[in-house]
Amino acid sequence: MPENQQFRSIPDISRTFAETHGDKAALICGDQRRSYAELNSDSNRIAQALIAAGVEPGDRVAFLDKNVPEYFTLIFGAAKARAVTVAVNWRLAPPEMAYILNHSRVKLLVVGREFLGHLDEMEFETEPQVVVVGSEAGGRQGFADWLDAHEDIDPELPCEWEDTCYQLYTSGTTGLPKGVELTNRNFFGMLSGASKAWNFDEESINLVAMPLFHIAGSGWGLVGLYSGGTNVLLREVDPSEILKAIQSHRITNALLVPAVLQILLATPGIEATDFSSVRSIIYGASPITEEVLVGAMRATGVPLLQVYGATETTGAITLLRAEDHDPGGPRAHLLRSAGQPSVGVELRIVDPNSMKDCPEGEVGEVWTRSHQNLKAYYADPEATLAVYPEGRDADGLGWLRTGDAGYLRDGYLFIHDRVKDMIVSGAENIYPAEIENALMDHPAVSDVAVIGVPDEKWGETVKAVIVPASGEEASDAELIAWCRERLAHFKCPTSVDRVEGIPRNPSGKILKTELRAPYWEGRERMVN
Length: 528
What we know:
By secondary structure, the protein is an alpha/beta fold. The chain has 15 helices and 26 strands.
């Protein structure tokens, strides 16, 4: 970001860098290249196209495709028209996609050709206008022609600090997904501190590999553009392509979720990949095992930084710095931590039953307060009130319930689990994550999820669901004994099931509700 430059809205990014270094590549995807001047010009045309299509300030426009440059052009163009971009998870089934499009009352949809078949299976309350990425298809207008039909004129509509500019839908591990409204203020509350803490500057070559419907994809991409760097987009997560891009583009910054890091470690060619250009790799969005973390540090030789956050917090609200990654050293215990609060972020731990603050070191629900916290859940005032139980002040600040369980020690946050995933056995609160970490250290375990299942005596008891490691075997008794050597006995599994794969959502979070369902079938609720 240029010295003394104060961005007040998303469109200010493209406007500013189009003037200061317009010829520089803003976006690279395969053989496609978009300069900052082109990004600004194309977003002007999109703004004019949206206005001509009857899209008014506050209306929603949606995007349904894998990672392509057109996505960022739409974000900037929609913001110039004071419309709100809705990113749709392309991994969903057509009825799930339709729910998001109907719920957000989308006026116009930009869709990739790959998903036109999905579109034909959807039922709409009000049919949106459709533009196809690339050229015309199936009688629907192509993106390029849509742009060319409108003038390169910035409408210069006033974009307010509290305008919703972006709407992402929660992963929906339970119930229907909710639309998270994020404002200009939310984004710049995150961007101003994150870009420096994550080693970004105008020389950054930023790898955008995670899906853009996720804050780890789109939010990460905005950090690169906010800094005036170049974003290298991969259409989807492909370990081999990630390694190629790091070397061929001389990537300086990357964000990879733990599941991707784990796959990378087993990808042929990683040992020959030149990581010398990479300043740091950010990881987060789901728990990581120490085995994967230490393996990634050794394989890449790159400083690793951990972040913790949520869609509702515009991404990261903590940072575990590179110097806090000290396997085998006096600070090795910090590898279990999610780090310290980011600049401008406050944290507290609250007992979810008494709603009182917990003492240091005691597990409770993580609450956070900062200007990164969502404006609202779209069209859901009850959910918004529930997540801000103490309300908000005149400046819009309030304590947000994250739904995550954790504790604070010496200023570091340690995440245990989702509050809703907590197992209550004989009045003892048990958090699956520490049991999962213990089991992942066993050579016969490739992946694991720990859940609570019904027990007539204790209400719930602990079950481990494992994916066996290739070529290794261990009996139930051996695995339970392994846990008992490392954990209090009441926390240890009483049974073990084996499966071919653990169900996860796109951000890598285990779908505990899906795993628990067969064991709780026929009961009114999934607790005892």
